[in-house]
Amino acid sequence: MTDSSSASSKERIIRLRQEIERHNRLYYQEAAPEISDQDFDALLAELGALEALHPELVDADSPTRRVGSDVSGGFATVRHLVPMQSLENTYSEGEVREFVARVLKGLPGENVRFTIEPKVDGVAISLLYESGRLVRAATRGDGQTGEEVTRNVLTIAGIPGQVEGFPGGIMEIRGEIYLPKQQFARLNEARDEEGLPAFANPRNAAAGSLKHLDARVVAERGLRGIFYGFGALPADFARSGDEFIRRLQNSGFPVPEHCQPASSMEEILAAIRAWDSGRHGLEYETDGAVVKVDSLSQRARLGSTSKAPRWAMAFKYPPERVTTRLVGITIQVGRTGVLTPVAELEPVSVSGSRVGRATLHNEEEIHRKDLRVGDHVEIEKAGEVIPAVVGVVTGRRDGSERPFAMPAACPSCGGPVSREEGQVAYRCANPSCPAQLLRRLGHFASRGAMDIEGLGERMVTQLVESGLVHSIPDLYRLRPEGLVALERMGEKSTTNLLEAIESSKRRPLWRLLFGLGVLHVGAVAARNLAAHFQTLDRLAAATEAELTTLPDVGDIMAHSIHQWFQHPQVHALLNELRALGLNLEETEITPPPGGPLDGTTWVLTGTLSIPREEAAERIRLAGGKVSSSVSKKTTYLLVGADAGSKLEKAQALEVAIVDESSFRRMIEEIN
Questions:
Q1: I need a surface site. Which of 14, 509, 518, 530 has the fewest CB within 10 A?
Q2: How would you classify the pairing of strands 625-627 and 601-605?
Q3: Which residues does 569 contact at the CB level (< 8 Å), separation at least 6?
């Protein structure tokens, strides 16, 4: 090979390593990839081929020789007892055949059994158990060391904190943390409402959630885990991968639903092909199938490279991408007034369903992708749930395509549209906007807000479509003669609904404030605001400077609250509610001095038999305070099942531990 050719290859290798490192950082640390897995794998394959041609240029630190790191710097790092490796992957059945041939060559004359299981597209996690007790959870990191995320993992439902029947000593149980597809859809919808950038896919959402510094946010995201592998493991725990997974399942761990055995090349390929369609019904996203040697002793003899085991390979399915025409862009108005552009498409089948619409999230995304009405666009399903426009076929443009601009007025009510500085979302500020009405009413009546029993989505839709309700105050003007004419509304159900609506007038101020949907004000913030200002009038008169003196109220929330109260239609809304008799003071949740729990501070942990908010409310009504974290000021820790690190900290600080039965006795004595 000529010197010029070698120099050119060296330059290309350097550029590839730099580009791959950049994409590794975006994928693992920032959860914001710019290219698809398939495109990334192509870069890695090109680098591997060049390094094979030029062994003199091979570097031990090359991305082909080590695992991409997910270390973000926000958590303490810990060393894995056994390194966490990645899998070699392929998009070619021919390379699967080559993998099986290598395995058989490495185990001459032996009977080799394989298993094929789904490749979960989540965040790799390692759980360290000591004598059956979870003591540490860590991300994969660089394979040798990862970030400790124990506190966050303990908030994830279904992950055992204590396992009965586990052997003594140490075990590393490994798998993936994922965000269920439907939860991913809800999360992105909520982010759209808040004007926040949407997550590209469930894997990115899971990574961003797991690395959140506030464990309460992690708990709210609805993450789940699935486990199928191990690091350190007692020698007699299992003899095969199949037995290992069965033991995990019997111990309460969530495991893959389908692990298909195979003994021949034909069976392996048949399982891979069948899984391509079968995987769409799972609650988690999968991007391939993993072929593994089942026997653990055979795995040990095959060994591994510095990066991946020789006994496993991932076959990755290329994402289904179809081309259709963007015939228009319409605007959807959400509960908080956010205007979300929606792509109207020529209907096309993708990932097993017919797609005619896809969210575009915000104007910036449209400009970044250079989308124009009339374009031919490429469609995928993000997380196999949400249709997404992933690109434009610019070569098919004929000059008739039209650029898009956000409207200057709300398409529903005609009111002014504005975008706050530093925000990507446009909003309609009119609280009476018809397009916002359905979602606003549903939120207002929800259990976490005004808690109006019987006023669910179906009833709200009927009330709006029948013309009985045009605003929140209209709920309190409903009469029996109007309700009984609705579908499935007899005399008794009408009476029950009207009584529930009437009872809601006495709800504490914080519930009303939360129910009215002030931007950036959640239930906790509403409670704090109501407790501080005591009346709606005092809160309405507060300056931004006053608002920011409260804990957890920053500049953005303070500005949002202040601006909301300045709107003339908000004044009219609040005056109507006042005239209709709604409680605008926080008197109901302020316990009298000297309550039985007066002066005590409580923290709740674990799974209780009643909703946490209900337990917290009982404590508050008895004069106690509820805090989110254990400290020296904590009086009691209320402990439910699968209690986490709060229990350990409470024990270290000698805080009184109260189980649920003791708590019930205390409450009964109070009542």
A1: 14
A2: parallel
A3: 430, 431, 432
Please report which helix (H) or strand (E) contains residue 664, including its range. Answer: helix 660-670
User: Which residues lie closer than 8 Å to 623 by C-beta, 6 or more apart?
Assistant: 591, 592, 593, 594, 595, 596, 597, 598, 599, 600
* Domain 434-588 fold: DNA polymerase; domain 1 (1.10.150)
Give SS3 for 553.
Answer: coil
Residue ranges, comma separated, of all CATH 2.40.50.140 domains in the chain are: 322-412
CATH 3.30.470.30 domain span(s) along the chain: 77-316
Residue with tokens 């991408």: 321
Q: Which residues are known to be catalytic?
A: 119
- Is residue 445 classed as helix, strand or coil in its secondary structure? helix
Instruction: For the chain, give the mean pLDDT.
Output: 84
CA atoms within 13 A on the CB side of 15: 7
Mean pLDDT of 147-156: 88
Instruction: Give SS3 for 378.
Output: strand
Say if strands 402-403 and 372-373 run parallel, antiparallel, or are unpaired.
antiparallel
Angle at 574 between CA 569 and CA 579, to 5 degrees: 125
Cite the residue boundaries of each domain of the chain with CATH code 1.10.287.610.
3-57
What is the residue-wise DSSP string for 67-105? PPP---SSS-EEE-SSPPP---EES-HHHHHHHHHHHHH
Q: What is the mean pLDDT of residues 586-613?
A: 71
Report CA torsion sign: 269, 272, 274, 277: negative
Please write down the long-range contacts of 55-62, taking CB distance under 8 Å and 24 or more positions apart.
57/9, 57/10, 57/13, 59/17, 60/306, 62/17
Domain 77-316 has CATH 3.30.470.30: yes
The HSE-up count of residue 24 (CA atoms within 13 Å, CB side) is 19
Q: What percent of the chain has pLDDT over 90?
A: 36
Per-residue pLDDT reduced to its tens digit, 218-262 = 777 889 999 999 999 998 899 999 999 999 999 999 999 888 999
Write down the pLDDT at residue 361: 81
Architecture of domain 3-57: Orthogonal Bundle (1.10)
Q: Which CATH class is domain 322-412?
A: mainly beta
CA distance 227 to 560: 43
